[in-house]
Amino acid sequence: MDQPSRSTTPLVLLIDEDPITRNLLQPVVRPYGLEVVQARASIAALELLQRVAERFRLAVVSLEMPGLSGAVLLETFRIFLPGLATVCLTAGSTVGGSGCLAKPPRSDELRVRIAEMLAGQPLPPVAAVGPDVVARARSAFALSASLLDAAREVARGMPGEPAMGS
What pairing do the DSSP bridges indicate for beta strands 85-90 and 35-39? Predict the structure, then answer.
């Protein structure tokens, strides 16, 4: 995982376990004046965001992540970091109405999506959770101040997510 520098340049977080995909994305996001930070695991991404959330302008998230899925990350961001622009990538069949781009994304499609997200267009819900799950996640965050604990609560409330221990 690359560490963010001490500069004040805004950051983009590329979250994908596949280094080839992360490396393909770097030249596409650099023209936006964003410094690239990579995370190959959801937990690492949450830890980075926990430390310097205000520096990140954009997160590019793969849905297919081990442990906490990209869908859990996106919902956690929606609840706790609503100002963070997000782009969703998937190798699966959920592309269509989810707003996710197919992997590997075409450079032109990715540029358009990044511009839209940075301009404030919201990503359509990939996997919405109920108000009870949001309340549990907010409660977990209030107790621990940990995005990871909040994300675990989100995961517990999402159908098809594996149980994540504390």
Answer: unpaired
Which candidate, 16, 89, 17, 80, places its Cα nearest to that of 53?
A: 80
**How many angstroms separate the CA atoms of 89 and 29, rounded?**
14
Query: Rounded distance, CA 55 to CA 108, Å?
Result: 26
Q: Write the CB contacts of 11 (distance below 8 Å, at least 6 apart in sequence).
A: 4, 34, 35, 36, 37, 52, 55, 56, 57, 58
For the domain made up of 11-127, give the CATH fold.
Rossmann fold (3.40.50)
Residue 162 predicted with pLDDT over 70: no
- Report pLDDT for 91: 85
User: How do the domains of the chain map onto residue ranges?
Assistant: 11-127
- Quick one: pLDDT band at residue 164, thresholds 50, 70, 90? low
